[in-house]
């Protein structure tokens, strides 16, 4: 695999997660959605789901198994969210390494093609999912005002780097 292909999401939504049409995911015959947490589901360092995200997740759970997959080491914060939603979760995921994700997927006993990884970071989420051949979806990050500038700079840098390598 080339670096270009590893950084190319299967679907660049250019919108936040709640704007991702669940019916489109269903058409792809997916069984599991592995979701990044920070800035994909909730703003970094927040612990409450925005209402629109909670609503989207409830709809998604009618069609898919959900697994939260986060580099965040806070078992309390991520675990609390996972328990509230009634979903499995992994903390300290070590993205972009795919080792821990591969272990999680093997426990699911499903083909990799039936699993999507959804996140807001090219060099963490998309790279990790593409290493394993998952269906990868890049979404816009959700942030709160005080975080927006630093995350926008980081995302611009990531996208510029991927552009330079042709992804």
UniProtKB/TrEMBL annotation:
Protein name: HAD-superfamily phosphatase subfamily IIIA
Coiled-coil ranges per UniProt: none
Organism this protein belongs to: Paulinella micropora
UniProt GO MF annotations: phosphatidylglycerophosphatase activity
Key words of the record: Plastid
Signal peptide residue numbers: none
Domain of life per record: Eukaryota
